[in-house]
Each structure stands twice: as structure tokens, then as C-alpha cells.
TrEMBL record:
Keywords: Hydrolase. Pfam families: Amidohydro_1. It comes from Streptomyces fuscus. GO terms for molecular function: 8-oxoguanine deaminase activity. Its EC number is 3.5.4.32. Residues 61-408 form the Amidohydrolase-related domain. It comes from the Bacteria. SUPFAM superfamilies: Composite domain of metallo-dependent hydrolases, Metallo-dependent hydrolases. This is 8-oxoguanine deaminase. It is an enzyme of class 3 (hydrolase).
Length: 459
């Protein structure tokens, strides 16, 4: 929407998720171009010029758009496999299939992953893509193209692996890169696609996969590369007890100390999972402001454990939410993670207040913006911030009898999305995407999943 063209949203409950957790039982939001111009209690100001649309949002809760901080889009076409495995056995079962993805499959899978998130209130997505089989085409470009067409704000964490089966790793030899090749391709992706501007729709992070699939040199040089280019760093960390054992056996230290020794702690770093963290690990993350992407459903699906999110928050660690790849979270939705994060972190005796509804909403919005390095631009509803926001319909059978709309959103069933705006542009209306044909995406993902299964069986 052009600057000085306004959309006025009125008669809605508002959870701003600002520093003071300001909320309005009935209020308004004014969007001007791609920014939030004003918001507050009651009716919008009189005399606004160039109002191109007014939305009566009676019965709705308006929140910042959800921010996804960890995902693997390509896994959309391998959902429902290896459903009773722990992480390592799951990887062993699926890597031979993943190693045969190509550009067409990756584009279709990205469409499926993005569509499922966007129609459920995600306005900023990320993808940690680290599988680059030889001769598979422009996988990074295909993922970025899918995000651009969907209309979501997007961070591509350009992943890499250089430790294959011959080096004691898990991926097939033809599915990994050399150290030099991975660094060069990552730098080229940053140079071609990263946008550092305030309202950037596409950013790129440097993201070697995990301690057990990359060499120490790839981690160390990857960190140096990211800081030279001025972009963020992302990887998996402390996900399982097996990873803890691996790091002690190979490096003589736990994952957090190993990451610190390679330059991988800092306010420009965020890590997925961080399930097996002791007090010293949490203190190191808090001291360095290293971020965490909490993926409760995936951690439960793979029996990895329960991350100490309340302890991390109390220590001052930035924490956001992640869907994770849909081969370990088949629903592919982030708004259900608000509820799952709250419930899973309450498991155990006397933990009924470990997380509350507003903390869960903050994880999915402002917390995610923090770990992606974009808290100045998104993650809360404040004048001057980018117009990324969601209208949740709260007056249906599923929620109407719950007086507090934030509690209804988090504790209740997944709420319908009446409208979702990204950069001031509406991309969802009445739970349907406006930017792509959902039915066509469904057909494409089914076809590509079947094609991949055939190729993997032949291989």
C-alpha cells in the first residue's frame, strides 16, 4: 500500500506486546503505508485523510504477526515418516530421501510450509536449509522466490554440512559440500539476497547445520564470514543427550563451551532447541545475549526433552518459537506452538505457573523478533513499527465464552485468522491466502512428495 494511504481497524481488543504489555479492551489501529501510524483505546481519530479502507473488527483480537524462528521447509514433502524415532534414528532414516531433493521439490515444499504458517498468523518466517545435493539447482533462490510470492517477511538461514558418512557424519557423501564450497556459496547467497534495510522483506543468515554434521573449521570460518558480512548466525544446539555425549567425546567439552570456542556465542547468534542446558550454559547464553528458538512440538515428537524456557527467560536469554521442520512437526503451524510451549513447560510437579498466556504470546511475537535481530521493526504493535499484524476471530463457538481474549488465543483451540497484514499488505482473508492458490499448492506438494518417494526408492 502506498505511503499516506491509510487502513483503519476499529472495535477490536488489542495486545500490543510492547515493553509494558499494553492492552486495550476495545481500540483501534491505523496503518499508513507499511507502518503502524497510531493505535489506542476507543475510536480512531477523526479527520484522517486518504483512508482507503475501514475494518470493523468487533469480536476480534489484534496482535503482532507471529514470528517463526526455526524451520526446514524442504521437509514438507517428507511428512509422516519415521514417526516413532528419536533424533539420530530419525535422521538416519530420512537423510537418504532428503539427499535427493531438487529445485522443483524445494520450491513446492517451501510453498507448502509457508502457506500453512501464513494462513495461521505468521507474518515473518525463516528457513534453515542445509541440504544441497550435487546438481540439485538453485535451492536458495527457489525458497526465497516462494516466500516473496507468498508475501511474508523472510529470513533464509543458508545452512551447510561438510561432515558426511565417510567422516563419521550422517548425510550421504553426495549431499554435503566442501568447506570452501559451503563458505563461497553462503557468501554468494548473502551478497545476492540479503537486505539490511528497516523494512527488508528478505534477509540471510549464515547457518552451518549442527556440531555433528559440520567441521570445527566450518563453524569457525562461518562465524567469521557472518561478522565480516554483517549478518546473523544460526545453528542447532544442545538438542539431545546424544549430542552432548558426541561433543564431550570428540571435543572434550559440552556443546555450549564448544560453541563459545568457535565464536558461536553472541547477540548476533540464535540456536534451535537448546533442550539440554545446565545452569552454566544458560548463564553463558544470558551473558552473551545468544538467542534460542524453542520448538516444543518437535522436541516432544522426537522425545528430545523439555527446554528450560522459564529459566532462560528469568536469566535474560532471548527466546522465540519455532515450528521446526514438518518431518518432526507435521502440523506445520506456529500458532499451535503458543499453546504447546505453555503446556509442555508446565509439565512436572508445582509448575502450574512456569509460563502464562502473555509470556507465550510474547515468545511467538516479540521474542521471535529479538532472536532474528528485528525487534526494532516488528514483534510488537507500536507507532513507527512495520505493519505486520493479525486479526484473530474470537467470537465463535471455540472462544466466545472466554472473557480474556489473550487467554482464549493461547489456551483455546487454534483461532481463525480473519486478516493478516505484512508490510501493510493483506495476505490472508477469512482463513484463506490471498497471494497463492492453496489448492494448487496442495496438489503440487502431493505430487512432489510422491516424486521424491519414487526417486528415493530407486536410489
Amino acid at each position: 500500500m502506498a505511503a499516506d494511504q491509510r487502513i483503519v481497524i476499529e472495535n477490536c481488543a488489542i495486545a500490543t506486546v510492547d515493553a509494558n504489555d499494553t492492552e486495550y479492551a476495545s481500540g483501534y489501529v491505523v496503518i499508513n503505508g507499511n507502518r503502524i501510524e497510531s493505535l489506542g483505546a476507543g475510536r480512531a481519530p477523526e479527520g484522517l485523510e486518504n483512508v482507503v479502507r475501514r475494518i470493523d473488527a468487533t469480536g476480534h483480537l489484534v496482535t503482532p504477526g507471529l514470528v517463526n524462528t526455526h524451520h526446514h521447509f524442504y521437509q514438507w514433502i517428507t511428512r509422516g515418516l519415521a514417526t516413532d524415532h528419536n533424533l539420530f534414528n530419525w535422521l538416519v532414516a530420512l537423510y537418504p530421501t532428503w539427499a535427493r531433493i531438487d529445485e522443483e521439490m524445494t520450491y513446492s515444499a517451501a510453498q507448502g510450509s509457508l502457506a500453512m504458517m501464513a494462513r495461521g498468523g505468521v507474518t515473518t518466517a525463516m528457513d534453515h536449509h542445509y541440504v544441497f545435493p550435487h546438481g540439485s539447482g538453485d535451492l536458495s533462490g527457489s525458497i526465497i522466490r516462494a516466500a516473496r510470492e507468498m508475501g511474508v517477511r523472510f529470513t533464509l538461514a543458508r545452512g551447510s554440512m561438510d561432515r558426511s558418512e565417510k567422516d563419521g557424519g550422517l548425510p550421504p557423501d553426495f549431499a554435503v559440500e566442501t568447506l570452501e564450497g559451503a563458505l563461497a556459496a553462503t557468501e554468494a547467497t548473502v551478497e545476492e539476497h540479503h537486505d539490511a534495510s528497516f523494512d527488508a522483506m528478505t534477509q540471510v543468515a549464515v547457518a552451518p547445520c549442527s556440531p555433528f554434521s559440520v567441521s570445527t573449521e566450518l563453524l569457525r570460518q562461518g562465524a567469521e564470514l557472518a561478522r565480516r558480512l554483517g549478518v546473523r548466525l544460526h545453528t542447532h544446539g544442545s538438542e539431545t543427550v546424544e549430542e552432548e555425549k558426541f561433543c564431550h567425546e570428540l571435543f572434550g567439552m559440552g556443546p555450549t563451551d564448544y560453541f563459545e570456542s568457535t565464536g558461536w556465542l553472541g547477540e548476533d547468534v540464535w540456536m534451535a532447541h537448546c533442550v539440554h542446558m545446565n545452569d552454566s550454559d544458560i548463564a553463558a547464553f544470558a551473558r552473551t545475549k545468544t538467542g534460542v528458538a524453542h520448538c516444543p512440538s518437535s522436541n516432544a515428537r522426537l522425545a528430545a526433552g523439555i527446554a528450560r524456557v522459564p529459566d532462560m527467560l528469568a536469566a535474560g536469554v532471548p527466546v522465540g518459537l519455532g515450528v521446526d521442520g514438518t518431518a518432526s512437526n507435521e502440523s506445520g503451524e506456529l500458532h499451535t506452538e503458543l499453546r504447546n510451549a505453555l503446556l509442555i513447560n508446565r509439565l512436572g510437579a508445582h509448575r502450574e505457573a512456569a509460563l502464562n498466556a502473555r509470556q507465550a504470546l510474547r515468545l511467538g511475537t516479540h521474542g521471535g523478533a529479538q532472536v532474528l535481530g528485528r525487534a526494532a521493526e516488528i514483534g510488537s504493535l507500536e507507532p513507527g513499527k512495520l505493519a505486520d499484524l493479525v486479526l484473530w476471530k474470537m467470537d465463535t463457538l471455540a472462544h466466545a465464552s472466554i472473557a480474556d481474549p489473550v487467554i482464549a488465543l493461547v489456551f483455546g483451540a487454534a483461532a481463525p485468522v480473519t486478516a493478516s497484514f505484512v508490510n501493510g499488505r493483506q495476505i490472508v482473508a477469512d482463513n484463506r491466502l490471498l497471494t497463492v492458490d492453496e489448492d494448487a499448492v496442495a496438489r503440487s506438494t502431493r505430487e512432489q512428495a510422491q516424486r521424491l518417494a519414487r526417486i528415493a526408492a530407486q536410489g
